[in-house]
Specification:
This protein is α+β, with helices and mostly antiparallel strands. Helices cover 29% and strands 33% of the residues.
């Protein structure tokens, strides 16, 4: 089996095992793995070989301040600013003990981006409402780092609370080679220790 398939399988297993362990069964169907809570975000970290994959998921309200489709100019500006902040991986993540370079980043703002056609925009501005589903909206981001001396990485500082102050708690699940762990980060505790 190719190494990338094995790595992807481990990442999926990590996400599923921690979501089942920590959150159990939810009666509501959301786009997220677990129950959507304002002020709380989730992050999974998978390290293998020279690769580190980090996935982040948060309520849109904690990232941009709202959960509906962005129609107004100030909402669209908040989206653009949040995208730039999430792209700045070096300001969010600091690895201790390894030399890591960001290879890939992508983020998903589709739950709050307004991608309607000009006709739909015209209908909206003429006060004919188009119903939007009442649901929670989430934003996710993915980071792929390549690191030399990955075995020497002892910790990861995550400055997400400083960049997005509405995130009060960050629930982190990680796997490094054959070890795994869980850490709850906050404004006073922003470092994941890999044991």
């Amino acid at each position: 089996m190719p190494a990338t398939v094995i790595f992807f399988t481990k990442v999926c297993f990590l996400i599923l095992s921690f979501s089942c362990l920590c959150y159990g069964h939810s009666e509501h169907h959301h786009k997220t793995i677990s129950a959507h809570k304002h002020g709380e975000a989730e992050m999974s970290i998978a390290m293998e070989g020279e690769d580190i994959e980090i996935d982040l998921q948060s309520s849109a309200a904690d990232i941009v301040g709202f959960e509906h489709k962005a129609h107004k100019k100030d909402e669209k500006l908040k989206l653009a600013q949040a995208k730039l902040k999430l792209q700045a991986a070096r300001s969010i993540f600091q690895f201790e003990g390894g030399d890591c370079k960001l290879l890939e980043h992508n983020s998903d703002f589709s739950a709050v981006e307004d991608k309607r056609s000009n006709i739909a925009d015209h209908i909206h501005t003429t006060h004919i409402s188009i119903p939007e589903a009442k649901q929670h909206s989430d934003i996710s981001a993915h980071y792929h780092f390549n690191c030399t001396n990955i075995d020497h990485i002892k910790s990861l500082s995550v400055n997400l609370n400083e960049i997005f102050p509405a995130i009060e708690k960050l629930d982190v699940s990680w796997i490094k080679n054959q070890h795994q762990g869980h850490e709850e980060l906050s404004k006073n505790h922003s470092k994941v220790i890999f044991k």
